[in-house]
Amino acid sequence: ARTQMALAAYEAGICINNASVTLVHGMSRPIGALFHVPHGLSNAMLLHDCLSFAVDGCPERFATLARAIGVAIDTMEDKKAAIFFLEEIKKLCKRCGEPTLAKAGIKKEEFEEKIEKMASDALASGSPGNTIREVTKEDVITIYRGLW
Questions:
Q1: Where are the alpha helices (DSSP H) in the chain?
Q2: For the chain, which ranges sit under pLDDT 50?
Q3: Phi, psi of 86 (to 5 degrees)
Q4: Which of 25, 63, 108, 117 could form a disulfide with 21 if both were Cys (CB 3.0 to 4.6 A apart)?
């Protein structure tokens, strides 16, 4: 398992080096920095919500993923197939024991107090700029608040 995780991390690094990262990574960094949540866990916390935000920017790409993993058929409309993909991501995260802010020991009030700073820091990272949709500070704040 450790060998496979090391290989997966290596392959992910190659992908990131070639394609960069998007909203989910930019938003996960402040959670790690301010609340000491490991980066992979904070990414998992945000994955479904950030992909749901991005889907309107490229439903055909999400539909391709849905078809590739077998949750949609070729004749299905792209938007519907994309939603099936997002639902499968949600199921996968739940099966893997998706972490939550509460499980990480973060108090809601403390998190709320830091949302403005986290949103500013996320945008300053540059990662949200690689997202297929334009991302505003208000978008980031809405996604953060949705974690509760």
A1: 2-19, 23-35, 39-54, 59-68, 78-95, 108-124, 137-146
A2: none
A3: -60, -40
A4: 25
